[in-house]
Amino acid sequence: MKNDDVTLVHRALAGDETAFATLVEKYQKQVHATAWRTTQDFHIAEDIVQETFLKAHQRLDTLSDPHRFSGWINAIATRCCLAWFREKRLNTQLSENISSATRRNDSYSGYLVGEQAKEASQELREIVKKWLAKLSENERTVITLHYFDGMLCEDIAAFLGVTTNTIKSRLNRARNRLKRNKSLEQSALDDFQTFAILSEAVKTERKIRVCINASIEDGDQFREGGASLIKTDVSLRLSSFGWEEHDKGEPVTMPLLGTSITPSVLRFPTVIGDTWIQEGFWDSLAKTTLEGYEQVEVSAGTFPTCLKHKSILITTPPHFQNNLLATSNGKPYKRGSKENSLFVNGTRYLWFAEGIGLVKMRYEHANGLTTAAELIEYRVPGKIEEYHPLQIGSTYTYKYYSVFLDETVLETWRVTENF
Fold first, then answer.
1. Mean per-residue pLDDT for 120-135?
2. What gap in Å lies between CA 2 and CA 70, rounded to an integer?
3. What is the DSSP string of 217-245?
4. What integer best gives the mean pLDDT of the chain?
């Protein structure tokens, strides 16, 4: 059956519409069952089926493994259900707010209703974060990937290298642990809709934590640290970074340079031609432009449609300061002299692969030097339609040449938090 799917996918990609129609006929009952089970509305489920296969047709070229078409189409259906729940909740809330404001004929009361709704959403998100913090790392990873990223148990099992039963066991153990929490006595955690609402609340702002370990090519470690990023509906930005030692290499490790010089890495939606200006590190000012899409070939593979991100950095008056928190050995890092830094003034290019993240960086410094970093290996849970997803459990290894050490450096990122 899987081989049939592979043949049909390849034929559909070649322009054979009857092949895709066959896939629709084969899987529409499965998708409808998923939608009906989660929405409890037959007609809404029919609409979700249409939307699911429309999205699948538009994005079929992003399916990296045709053998897994069944899981892929089900993941799309799940995301469509989540979107429906979110829209339903927002429409209901809007209707109630308008009705309340109209009855009272008081614009200020309408404002208060909106503020109370925002406070409730923020409170819910904080509750979810506290819940997840009570879980072990294995349980938290499974819960996050399954409920917040919409991955199937089979896909999580393949990513983690364990059996599907192990994943189901971890999910059940995590749910039981959460149910023992007093604040969850009235919550039905087995109910899909509950987690759908919770996942949307978390998605409004997610804190991403990346642990970083750097070593020279012969294996000797010279730095260990990490970074925290904040992802919202409008941007992905760096909030802090730090390391245990700073006297053995660059003040900012090279791949991380892609996020620390300019705090706002990406802005959403990503539209080619978009340009924004922001203050950076060491009193710099950066003008960033999304230039287009290019094929990039690095040690980790060939990526056909990478988002090309260009930043021109110049010196600014000293009153420009950003709010990044940088630490070394647990203490605030002193910026030092920008004249002695190789990282300010020049042109920096970043290439992001959809569903993976940063795959290549090239920095042409104003002093004539050039620094480049490339992805040499990576491991991500599942492909999602974002250019820097940083899903929990993902690992990335980059390679670059350190002008300070006169050595080739290998740097590994590991995403330990994303909720």
1. 67
2. 9
3. TTS-EEEEEEEEEEEESSEEEEEEEEES-
4. 76
Report whether CATH 3.40.190.10 matches the domain 122-203. no
235: exposed, middle or buried (Cβ count in 10 Å: 0-12, 13-18, 19+): middle
pLDDT of 296 over the 90 cut: yes
* CB under 8 A, 24+ apart: contacts of 377-382: 377/299, 377/300, 378/300, 379/159, 380/159, 380/355, 380/356, 381/145, 381/149, 381/151, 381/155, 381/156, 381/159, 382/75, 382/145, 382/149, 382/151, 382/155, 382/159
Q: pLDDT value at position 319?
A: 42
Q: How far apart, in whole angstroms, are the C-alpha atoms of residue 194 and residue 174?
A: 15
CATH of 2-81, one of 3.90.1170.40, 1.10.1740.10, 3.40.50.620, 3.40.50.720: 1.10.1740.10
- Residue reference for tokens 């630490």: 327
Q: How far apart are CA 102 and CA 150, in angstroms?
A: 39
Q: Which of 35, 40, 65, 39 is nearest to 53 (CA)?
A: 35
Task: Enumerate the CATH 1.10.1740.10 domain ranges in the chain, comma separated.
Answer: 2-81
Q: What average pLDDT score do residues 242-252 get?
A: 56
Pinpoint the alpha helices (H) of 192-348.
192-203, 257-260
Confidence of residue 192 (pLDDT cuts 50, 70, 90): very low
Task: Name residue 386's amino acid.
Answer: E
Asked whether the beta carbons of 352 and 388 are under 8 A apart, the reply is yes
Lowest mean pLDDT among 8-17, 19-28, 101-110: 101-110
Least confident of 9-18, 46-55, 312-321, 373-382: 312-321
Residue 391 carries which side chain, given as an amino acid letter? Q
Paired tokens of 196? 């759908």
* Separation of first and last alpha carbons in the chain: 36
**Cα(314)–Cα(284) distance, integer angstroms:** 6
Contact between residue 267 and residue 261 where contact means Cβ atoms under 8 Å apart? no
